[in-house]
Amino acid sequence: MPPLDPQLRAALAAAGGRAREVLTPEGLTAWQERDAAARPRPSLDRLRDGGRFAVEELRVPRADGAGEVTLVSARPAGAGPELPLLYYLHGGGMVTGNAWSVLPRLLRGWALPLGLAVVSVEYRLAPGTRFPGAVEDCYAGLVRVADQAGALGVDPRRMVIGGKSAGGGLAAALALLARDRGGPTAIGQLLLSPMLDDRGDTFSSHQLAGHDTWDRTSNATAWQALLGDRYGAADLSPYAAPARATDLSGLPPAYVDVGSAETFRDEAVGYANAIWQAGGEAELHVWPGACHGFDTLAPQAALTGDAHEARTRWLRRVLRR
Question: What pairs with residue 163 in β-bridges?
């Protein structure tokens, strides 16, 4: 397998067996319970950080009539109207995570230095809700944000869809869905280690089995939870697994990054390549020696700093167009 970056290897060793724990169908409920305990939702007051940020929750009716989607809207306090917007979808393998816990890092890392607003989406998780529940939640929220951009103080002409891991896959799916439905147009899609392909047949998926922090067994468990009896279907919708898409034309410019020692490496590289082949724009970064979630595992590592700088440069460049 590709060698790990020395700082990441040290961080993995310090984390012990937890870092490479494998998700199985039998262990899914316990996995979700542990994640909820380890990643609690910060209160709105905590997110406001002593008045540095304006934060509110919005609720949007779901398209299927099953209640409402919660959106957490945040922006630097006192910022002017018509801020650019990062519409963000959290990670967690489609089975864990929440819209609140990702915000502190997004607000410090991007909202303040770039002067942008962030909307984080609390989409429904599998297996409680299977496809297409999550992507439809994300689409309903995007439509509402675009429709109410003035009231929210954001510029609907400068929206970037983004996400990490499962959220990166959802962001790619949302870009496809918005294109095909004639929905709100984003100016970019920020795809960080995106979860794109349910089939698990890439070289990296096999190469990193038992080694990556999210390996093919965990990935298969998550896809099965999301898709149920549609898992592996020949005609699976690209809105579930964007790597299934046969037409990647007409999409917003993409930023795709992934680690060289990561299960998702080859599907991410393949997706960027397919965008280029369709005549689109993609910026691809493969971080040498990086495993899945390396920036969370080792926030002080040099590679993490380089990745953050590259993502920030792309965001700044896209927002200035």
Answer: 89, 191
Write down the pLDDT at residue 224: 98
- The per-residue DSSP string of 148-168 comes to THHHHTEEEEEEEEEEETHHH
Structure tokens at 45: 């007051």
pTM score over 0.90? yes
Report DSSP state, residue 22.
Answer: P
Cis peptide before 252 (omega within 30 of 0): no
Convert the pLDDT of each residue in 36-78 to its tens digit.
998 889 999 999 999 999 999 999 999 889 999 999 999 999 9
Query: What pLDDT score was predicted for residue 5?
Result: 98
Picking from 116, 142, 153, 147, the residue whose alpha carbon sits closest to that of residue 319 is 116
CA separation for the pair 124, 135 (Å, rounded): 9
Please tell me the number of Cα atoms within 13 Å of 182 on its side-chain side: 0
| Per-residue pLDDT tens over the stretch 260-319 | 999 999 999 999 999 999 999 999 999 999 999 999 999 999 999 999 999 999 999 999
Beta strands in the chain (DSSP E): 53-61, 68-76, 83-89, 117-122, 154-164, 188-192, 254-259, 282-287
Q: What is the DSSP letter of 244?
A: G
* Location of structure tokens 């920020």: 190
